[in-house]
Design goal:
With about 230 residues, the protein is of the alpha/beta class. The chain has two domains: about 150 residues, Rossmann fold (3-Layer(aba) Sandwich), CATH 3.40.50.1000; about 70 residues, Orthogonal Bundle (DNA polymerase, domain 1). The protein is built from eleven helices and six strands. Strands 3-2-1-4-5-6 form a six-stranded parallel beta sheet, with helices on both faces.
């Protein structure tokens, strides 16, 4: 199948941030009595829009009979996460070489908030590969798994959804790409990937699984529109 553009998720596809987020979030959630098994947490929350994520946590906290989340909780988690990002964040192996080789239309479409998304891309040296086509879930009404963000990005690139490839590492992201009518490839090359990750993305509907950016680059070489 020929594609006119690629839409990349950011966390877990471009930058190796998912483990940072999950480690910090689960640590702080446990402090207020919210305990989640790792697989359950990833399946439920990974790729979810920020507003929906915090609303779900608030609901879980209320279900414990503790009322809403403490007012200081989200800022504390944000501060701890940013400290880890600034210290530990790196790009995922092979992404710069892929972007240097494939110069066709592309965008980032991430659930991250705008300021944090741009910071992560700058921090890892990826910003210039995508600017100005860097899009956040904050820019649309409904976050992933709704299709809004991917449709918004495709419109900005002036490409048809049916001729757009999405590269995603989360169940919510895969669902969003499919709902947008796009080809979706599940990416399992991030540091957070685990046994069963590929099967979960397939079950969510991913058309293909790629396990590294070298693998992705090889597949894209067969699509001259993206070369």
């Amino acid at each position: 199948m020929a594609f006119d553009a690629i839409l990349f998720d950011c966390d877990g596809v471009l930058v190796d941030s998912e483990k940072i987020y999950v480690d910090v979030e689960r640590e702080y959630l446990a402090r207020i009595g919210l305990h989640y098994e790792l697989d359950d947490y990833m399946n439920r929350f990974q790729g979810l829009g920020s507003t929906d994520y915090w609303a779900a946590l608030d609901q879980d906290h209320r279900a414990l009979g503790k009322g809403g989340l403490p007012e200081s909780f989200a800022p504390e988690v944000d501060a701890a996460t940013m400290a880890r990002i600034n210290r530990d964040l790196s790009e995922i192996k092979g992404i710069k070489q892929l972007l240097q080789a494939h110069t066709g239309a592309r965008a980032v479409a991430s659930s991250s908030r705008v300021h944090r998304l741009r910071h992560k891309l700058r921090h890892t040296g990826l910003f210039a590969f995508f600017d100005p086509h860097i899009y956040s879930g904050e820019q649309v009404e409904n976050g992933k798994p709704a299709p809004d963000l991917f449709l918004f990005a495709a419109k900005k690139l002036a490409v048809a959804p049916s001729r757009t490839l999405v590269v995603e590492d989360s169940i919510n992201g895969v669902k969003a790409g499919l709902a947008a009518g796009m080809e979706v490839w599940g990416f399992v090359g991030g540091g957070h990937s685990h046994d069963g990750h590929a099967d979960q993305l397939r079950a969510a509907g991913a058309h293909r699984i790629v396990d590294s950016h070298d693998n992705l680059a090889s597949l894209l070489r067969d699509s001259p529109q993206l070369a």
